[in-house]
Amino acid sequence: MWGEIIRYDEVTSTNDLARDHARRGVAEGSVVVARYQAAGRGRQGRAWCAPRDRALLCSLILRPPAALARSAWLTLLGGLAVAEAVRQRTQVPATLKWPNDVLVEGRKLAGVLTETSRVGETQVAVVGIGLNVNQEASDFAGELAESATSLQLATGKPWPADELLNDVVEHYRAGYQVLLEGGVEKLRQQYLALDSTVGRAVQVEAPDGAWSGRAATVDEHGALWVEDAAGDARKIIVGDISIRVEA
Ligand code: BTN
């Protein structure tokens, strides 16, 4: 393992605990993992809920150099690490929906929430990952019944979350090393190989209104370029906007 694994039975959010451990100086690459989150967070203010012991809920602690502290790649690497780990261990053909959802047959299998903070002179990034492992159909209520899935649902059998945790951290570590060495083009190719957004019609939900276009590519900064109805390419930055891939 890269750093240490810090285990909890129940937490508010593993991202909160990871930030606290980072402040206390835990080694980079350490990961906080919990069996249950009472206040799990998703992107854009959404909640992230999972029954006890059914999902992998973890947060990886990073101390990126200042130039990379706000890089979208910290988040994109989370989705990439999950998709690669899932494909290798379970043979489930997981794909990426920009920026950081991991999908199986159009349903969401995992999500990533990166939060950064400053500790003294150092930037800390906490990459929180929620991977649906052993949920059954009845564990997904409301609109999740149509939009979410788990490895158990995709394969018909349960999977060990601990092994997946090791796999995900190892894949993240490998990608992070490439990022530190400036190998963004290599990461971009790895990302695009598993991406299921580029080439598709998308609905962009921006603060000043929604518009439709076609996803064109993901650039070296991890931004998505979308071609609008007039044929102009517009840049979408992680965190600003959400996109909906149209059927
Ligand atoms: C999303 O797709 O909206 C992101 C979901 C991120 C969920 C994970 S679960 C572990 C970590 N702790 C949290 O509170 N959120 C992330």
Helices and strands in order, then pairings?
Blueprint: E1 5-11, H1 14-23, E2 31-37, E3 55-62, H2 73-90, E4 95-97, E5 101-104, E6 107-119, E7 122-132, H3 144-147, H4 151-155, H5 161-180, H6 184-194, E8 201-206, E9 209-218, E10 224-228, E11 233-236, E12 242-245
Helix pairs in contact: 2-5, 2-6
Structural overview:
This protein has 247 residues and is of the alpha+beta class. The protein is 28% helix and 33% strand. The chain contains six helices and twelve strands. The strands form two sheets. Strands 1-2-3-7-6-5-4 form a seven-stranded mixed β-sheet, with helices on both faces. It has a five-stranded antiparallel β-sheet with strand order 11-10-9-8-12, with no helix packed on it. It is globular and about 50 Å long. The model has no long low-confidence stretch (mean pLDDT 94). Residues 13-15, 37, 40-43, 46, 48, 57-59, 101, 111-113, 128-130 line the site of biotin (BTN).
Percentage of residues in strands: 25-35%
Q: Strands of the largest sheet, in order across it? A: 1-2-3-7-6-5-4
What's the oligomerization state?
A: single chain
What is the first-to-last residue Cα distance? 40 Å
Distinct ligand kinds: biotin
Helix/strand-derived category reads alpha+beta
The biggest sheet, with number of strands, parallel, antiparallel or mixed sense and barrel status, is: 7 strands, mixed
Number of helices: 6
Could you give a quick summary of the protein structure above?
The protein is of the alpha+beta class and 247 residues long. The protein has six helices and twelve strands. The mean pLDDT is 94.
